Amino acid sequence: MQMPTCPTGISQMNIWKCENERHQCGKMIEHNAAIPRCRAYLRDYKNVTERKTTYLIWDRIIKNADNVKAATTYARPRNCIRDGKLVDSESSAEPYIAISYAWDIRPSFKEWEGRRVTEQALHIADRLSKHTSYALWIDAICIDQDNEPVKMVELAKMADIYRGAAAVLCLVPEIDQTTSRVVEHGTGMIDLDGFRALEQAGDTHGMYMFASQGSNKAFHKLFSSRWWTRVWTFQEAVLNHITFLVGEKEETIPISDVLKISHPISRRAATQKKDNLLGQSSNFWDSVHSMSDAMKAYMPLGTAISSVWRRQSTVTHDMVYSLLGVCRLETITPDYRLPVEKVFADLVDKASSKGDFSWLRWSHVVDRDAACEGMSMVPVPATVLATPASAITEWRFVEVPQMSVVRGGAVGVCIPHRSTGVIRWQSEPEDIKGVINMLQKLSYGPEDIWNLLFGLHVGFACDVDKAVGGSGLAQALLNLATGYIDGTIKLEDSEDDLVGDKPYTRGYGFTAYASMAAKVWKNTQLGVMRSQGGTTVVPAHSGTGQARLHRLPVESHRGTCLCLVVHDSTKFRASAIGVMVEDDHAGSGSWQFTRFS
């Protein structure tokens, strides 16, 4: 039977590089029939293109909104700006619009209304005021930058200011009419049968191509904006459900549509070997996609860390203060006079007091030998940013009863733990290949071996399998990773999600996870430790005396937990942290609460 030809003469169809009967697009399954991707794409592309735009300019949307009222449940800003004048907003009930934007790299200041403000902010106020009678909240104008006590009070209210606004406008100057049309088109494609069939099959490349129109340059331009890289803009964009991205000429895109498209982009970024998609790294796409989760509910601290700390800030303190709103930790009062080490320690202490120990998911990347006193368990942005990407496994905290704290000195952080017993056997330090061989001799299967070695850094085998739509990939993941490690498989030679002239085959698209794994323990000596309660693999360390494994109150959705290695000689100092594969029906002690450093 003759295959259908790919359409020609339509520029958007060139993304598949098909000519006449020569298909390079690969096949997809739709309604139990195998069809070329390009055919489904063309059908849905025409469907979406024939629709009229539903996007309106932001001022019309707000003007048409029924009964816009000021929110009364949130703390209000001290000042807003209206008609070129500073107005009292704290004692007023009038609605206001909050503005999110990236400050100029080298801002110019001028005196205005008795305070020092940026010229950039004044230009923004002048421009937006022409389109609305609402008061505007713009930080560089409405917060007195030279009045430190007032500034700290207003920063503590930052999340409420955005939550309580009538709308939030995120100023992204790279947006134009073309960008607006491309985003609207992409969200339309995601809602149709073709994309749904690709998603059901786990076809990461096909999903990406449908949503992005084959890496449309408009997406390069949109996501090149500095606005996406700043720490404060994360919470500013997710706390209010009436939030828009706005271009220089008031082009308006609902941020929810942009984040909808970021999902297939982030999945594609994770499963391709080259860490560059639409001009951005997989770290970047991790951060952007997680914004959609933050819009639905508060984020556990560990999740927020993996998102916000992949961004940038001029002042290190802001790496903490900018995530308080999305984590509902506003009881922490900003204070830039505090040592930054104390700010980070206070952050994890405050989260822990609410029963949120999800931040421990990042403690395994801390270099304990280099950590300063009292900070060996506390993750900091540098350690998060240095990891290739967030592990795809979601870690949740386990509720434990509040207990009295055993002090291990004046420094450290309080962590509940449950002993799984003393170390009954531990191996001599080995490289990664030696540890894999050792675990195989101990009768561990490929899933457990992968999880012990790479579960924290890359994700559990079951979650990798789910992400790429495969079936039982653990052994293939291990084979590929060890091939990369010993050099029998070269990174540039492996297939990358079978794109291009090869048809889609279910279960592929995991090469990036294997290449990430190959880098995790490079030049590192590992040790296997076994107690009555389970087994873990951790880097070789300098602890002495009898060691114990302690279960931590952080686990995956399937119940696999994290554990601490603690030696009797260093009772209040953790030696290492890793994933623990538990033994069935094994005792695991009772919960204790100790201040570890």
Automatic annotation (TrEMBL):
Top-rank lineage group of the source organism: Eukaryota
Annotated ranges, domain Heterokaryon incompatibility: 96-236
Entries under InterPro entries matching the protein: HET, HetReg/Transcr_Mod
Listed transmembrane segments: none
Protein name: Heterokaryon incompatibility protein-domain-containing protein
Source species of the chain: Suillus plorans
